[in-house]
Structure formats: C-alpha cells, structure tokens
Amino acid sequence: MSLTTLGDLRGRLDRRRGTCVLIAIKARAHCKTRLAQSLGSAARIELVRSMFTAVLSAAQAARTVSQIIVMSPERDAIPAHIPVLADAGESLNAALTQAHRVLLDFGCPDVVVLPADLPNITSAEIDALVRAGQCGGFAIAPDMHGRGTNGLCLNFSRPFCFQFGEDSQQSHVQEARRMGLTPRIIRRPGLEFDVDSTADLIRLDRHQWRARLQA
Description:
This protein is an alpha/beta fold. It has one domain (6-207): Spore Coat Polysaccharide Biosynthesis Protein SpsA, Chain A (Alpha-Beta Complex). It has eight helices and seven strands; from the N terminus they run αβαββαβαββαβααα. It has a seven-stranded mixed beta sheet, sandwiched between helices. The radius of gyration is 17 Å and the shape is globular.
C-alpha cells in the first residue's frame, strides 16, 4: 500500500464538524535510537508500533475527531483507510508546517498534532485538548518535565510556525502569543508521558519489557 498523494487526500478528507488529528512518526527503524543501549532494533520497532497503535486507537475513539492523518516516510503497518502523507525527512517542523498548510488549503482549520510515542494516551485526553484549543485558538500539552511538547491543538485558519526541539513548550507558547492567540496549557497523565529513556521504558511496563533489556 503506497503513501497518500495530495489529490487522494483531498478526496478522502472528512469535512464534517470535527477536528483533524495529525500523527507524526519517523521511519520505524529510525525511531527511539536513544534506547539502543536498552533494546535491540527489532524490540524498538515493536515498541514503536505498539505506542503508535495506542495513539491511533485513542484518536479513533475521541468524540471530537472526524479525521486522522499520519505523516511518515513509510506506511508500514498503518491501516489502509488511514491517509499517510509523505515526510521528506528534512525536519519535523518543516514537515508539520507543510502538512498544516495542506490541511488549511483543504478547509480543515481545526488540527491536533500528536507524536506517536504516547503509550498511555486516552480518547478523553484528546477531547480535552481539543476543547481547550477551541476556547482560545491554541492549546498545548507539555511533557511531564514541562519543557517539551506532547500535543498541540490549533484552532485557526492561519499557518503556524512549529517549534519542536529543545524547550519547545515555551517556544510554542511564544509563537502562539505572537499570533495574537491565547495559549491554554492542558496537563493529563497520558499526554505527559512519552518514552525517551530506559527509565521511561521500565515505567511503561516493568514486566513486559524488562526481559528485553540488554546487559
């Protein structure tokens, strides 16, 4: 199954009242390389696919969501009915900016951006993020340290300059304010917890993954 072209996407977008969720994920073999000292490549890919499935399932069950799009350089095991926009691999921010512009051009101004490594995220948490964004045009879900960004809700019809990277939470809030928006910060357990380290991995599931840890 190939990736989705822009022409195909235009025909498949659901413009009913609701939000479009955009999930970003790299090529699976390139994901979570920081865990290489703890997990072998096959186990990392299995973990990445498992976390992505959790995010996808939560988005599908969210009441406020009408459309889900994945941004990735490969389709991998993503179900055929989910559009996958090609990520050229230049940078996450550039790819998200392009995808967001495409959605705006296609008449989808309400967009939630989620990473693919939120294993405990729930549909209720996505709904809460969406409703927070509807109040002021912009909502952000920081990581547990209050520095990174684990979710964005954009509820406006102008291009946004994404700021993922070091201290992205503060950078995203500043960008929203520069645009005249009122940022709302939403904290939920499943939105705060991502998996970037061995400590996170053990916290995720001590029993399932401990046997995979390498000496």
